């Protein structure tokens, strides 16, 4: 019955438009009563996003089972992949919903509220993992927002392709960017050790040019070039 209601709703949305379709129209086409509709969906908007409640519950359970994971940023990235999987399971429906949502401001607002709930679930997990760390809450909120932004950037690119592109490859690429930016533990990119920095500096050529004020630029450049070539110091 739930699937029949969703199918009837989207058939009418495509034929008449979202605003012109009522709940009564949907239940009439599905052959059920209004009570049956509201048993499954809290509102007409709810039938457009029928799978998000279950996905949010799965995502939360996935994170709750990872309180000791040594790589919390990787964990929230994997959680975001659960959302992608939900979209990719039914590309036709996902593309239809994307196009419908773009054309109806009210649905866009509703979708943003759903996205915010995903972001809060990710942030709550990271806040627990970063508890006691300096700026732990800040790191948690920023990383959660970055994961959602990266995921949605790739997801929308896939939806704009009509579901033809490789959704998993796109999202993996986007989430790898987040992991590279923040590191597995959420402390930012792995910093080189001081010894490594010193070794790297020793391998680099450093040229110091001392020149009088007003020296022509071409003469300064020639001095730099001669220093790099090892042919002598800078003029002036």
Explain this structure to me?
By secondary structure, the protein is mostly helical. It folds into three domains: 1-48, Arc Repressor Mutant, subunit A (Orthogonal Bundle), CATH 1.10.10.60; 51-191, Tetracycline Repressor, domain 2 (Orthogonal Bundle), CATH 1.10.357; 200-229, no CATH class. The chain has twelve helices and no strands. It has helices at residues 2-16, 23-30, 34-40, 44-48, 52-64, 72-88, 91-103, 105-129, 136-160, 167-182, 194-203, 217-229.
In short:
The protein has 12 helices and no strands. With 236 residues, the chain is mainly α.
Mean pLDDT value: 85
Strand content: under 5%
CATH class of the largest domain: Mainly Alpha
Question: In whole angstroms, how far apart are the ends?
Answer: 87 Å
Number of domains: 3
Query: Secondary-structure element sequence?
Result: HHHHHHHHHHHH
**Beta strand count:** 0
Low-confidence parts: 190-203
Sheet/helix structural class: mainly alpha
What is the CATH fold-level name of the largest domain? Tetracycline Repressor, domain 2
Main beta sheet? none
CATH architecture of the largest domain: Orthogonal Bundle
* Basic shape: elongated
Rg, rounded, reads: 27 Å
Helix content range: over 70%
- Count every helix, treating DSSP H or I runs of 4 or more residues as helices: 12
């Amino acid at each position: 019955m739930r699937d029949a209601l969703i199918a009837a709703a989207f058939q009418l949305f495509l034929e008449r438009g979202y605003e012109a379709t009522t709940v009564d129209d949907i239940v009439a086409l599905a052959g059920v009563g209004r009570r049956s509709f509201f048993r499954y969906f809290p509102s007409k908007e709810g039938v457009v996003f029928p799978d998000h409640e279950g996905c949010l519950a799965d995502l939360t359970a996935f994170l709750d089972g990872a309180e000791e994971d040594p790589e919390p940023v990787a964990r929230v990235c994997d959680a975001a992949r659960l959302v992608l999987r939900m979209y990719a399971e039914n590309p036709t429906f996902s593309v239809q919903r994307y196009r419908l949502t773009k054309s109806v401001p009210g649905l866009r607002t509703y979708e943003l509220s759903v996205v915010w709930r995903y972001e809060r679930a990710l942030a709550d997990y990271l806040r627990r993992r970063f508890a006691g760390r300096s700026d732990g809450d800040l790191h948690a909120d920023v990383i959660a927002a970055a994961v959602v932004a990266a995921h949605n950037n790739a997801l929308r690119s896939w939806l704009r392709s009509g579901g033809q592109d490789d959704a998993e490859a796109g999202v993996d690429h986007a989430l790898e960017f987040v992991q590279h930016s923040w590191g597995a533990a959420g402390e930012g990119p792995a910093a080189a050790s001081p010894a490594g920095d010193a070794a790297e500096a020793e391998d680099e050529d450093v040229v110091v040019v001392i020149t009088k004020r007003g020296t022509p630029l071409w003469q300064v450049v020639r001095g730099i070039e001669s220093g790099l070539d090892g042919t002598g110091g800078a003029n002036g």
